[in-house]
Amino acid sequence: MLELFLGFWISRTVMAAVELGVFEILDAEQAGEGLTLEEAQAALGLAARPARALLDTCVATGLLDKEDGRYRNSLLAARYLSSRSTHSLRNYVLDERWCWPAWGRLEDALRADHQLLPEDQEGYHAFPEDFFLDFLHGHSGVMGDRLAEGVDLREATRIMDVGGGSGAVSIALCTAFPHLEAIVVDQPPVAAKAAGHIAEARLSERVTTWPANIFDDALPPDCDVAVLANVLHDFSPDRAREILGRVVEALPRGGRVVILEIVPDDERRSPPLAVAFSVAMIVNTAGGDAHTVPQYRAWLEAAGLVDVVVTPIEGRMVTTVIEAVKPM
Q1: Which CATH architecture has domain 130-325?
Q2: Contact 99, 259 (CB under 8 A)
Q3: Is 291 among the catalytic positions?
Q4: Which H/E stretch holds residue 186?
Q5: 238, exposed or middle or buried, with CB in 10 Å at 0-12, 13-18, 19+?
Q6: Number of helical (H) and strand (E) elements in the chain, helices listed first
Q7: How confident is the model at residue 39, as a pLDDT?
Q8: 2: burial class by Cβ within 10 Å (0-12, 13-18, 19+)?
């Protein structure tokens, strides 16, 4: 029971470690064989007691290794928390750090049925401009890799990545399927960010952007697959159905919709993180939710799609691929 309700001790400590730059100063390229406590505290600008408490907690949780009095990143932290990693979740952690005041007022958010942070036009909490929707790039890259393993796109030629954010999913899919072309559809500031990531991945000839509001503007033509990766949970059922309707309308007959989402079981009993994702959506959005497979199936069929296929992907967040086809 103590571990259950005191778990925020660990999560908040990890947030502080990320914000203070622990995993950058202990990156192998920077720290060599690791840093002593004295070297680390000097680099962090901390006194001995808080530096030791912070670093040792990271050791206890498997994020740092400690040997002969020297600290270094574990493989886990080097891959997911150092900003130098292409799979870095650093910005994701920072986003949760910025949301911390809202979590501290969770009871108020639950009573209001609405997130309490400043919000954008779609009801999602607002971001600093230089960070806008870029915080999920590392996470989306991992999800894109998992999607590539869970869906067969060998016969596809051109996909629209609806609400594609940083472009990470399109990058992953086009890397896995060398013949594939992709169009990342998102708001203009987000599309501009995505173009930079696409260029860094050297995929600008095959992955392009389509700046648009997915509720109001035209969607790309001549795409045989529409991918919605971790998009629909940001919206209420009505808004999610609206998005699906516009996507289906833009697809040709025989076109396919591919949804990648965090999905709890049908009765919303497990697993804990996927069920609690509904609470996170109250903290972060005006109407988002962790929608279930029966909901997605009903929405797809109501939009006129057939041949619904559900492919669970193993993991604690229970990410699921849901596919359907527009009849010929």
Answers
A1: 3-Layer(aba) Sandwich (3.40)
A2: no
A3: no
A4: strand 181-186
A5: exposed
A6: 16, 10
A7: 95
A8: exposed
Strand partners, 119: 125
Going across the sheet that includes 207-211, the strands are: 207-211, 181-186, 158-162, 225-229, 256-262, 319-325, 306-313
The span from the CA of 37 to the CA of 141, in Å, is: 34
Q: Which of 235, 222, 244, 277 is nearest to 162 (CA)?
A: 244
In the chain, which ranges are continuous DSSP H helix? Answer: 2-5, 7-20, 22-25, 28-31, 37-44, 48-60, 75-80, 90-98, 100-103, 106-112, 137-150, 168-176, 188-200, 237-250, 272-284, 293-302
Sheet arrangement for strand 70-73:
35-36, 70-73, 64-67
The pairing of beta strand 207-211 with beta strand 70-73: unpaired
| Confidence at residue 127, expressed as pLDDT on a 0 to 100 scale | 65
Asked if residues 322 and 296 have their Cβ atoms less than 8 Å apart, the reply is yes
- In whole angstroms, what is the distance from residue 179 CA to residue 19 CA? 40
CA distance 251 to 46: 56
Query: What does each C-alpha distance from 68 to 25, 48, 50, 65, 210 come to in angstroms?
Result: 18, 17, 20, 10, 53
What ranges do the domains of the chain cover? Answer: 2-86, 130-325
**Can you read off the two tokens belonging to residue 11?**
């999560």
Would you say residue 213 has pLDDT above 80?
A: yes
CATH class of 2-86: mainly alpha
Q: What is the pLDDT of residues 120-177, one digit of tens each?
A: 776 666 666 566 556 778 889 889 999 999 999 999 999 999 999 999 999 999 999 9
Rounded Cα gap, residues 69 and 160, in angstroms: 51
Contact 150, 143 (CB under 8 A): no
Q: Among residues 137, 197, 233, 291, which one is catalytic?
A: 233
Cis omega (within 30 of 0) for bond into 271: yes
3-state secondary structure of 280: helix
Helix (H, G, I), strand (E, B) or coil at 311: strand
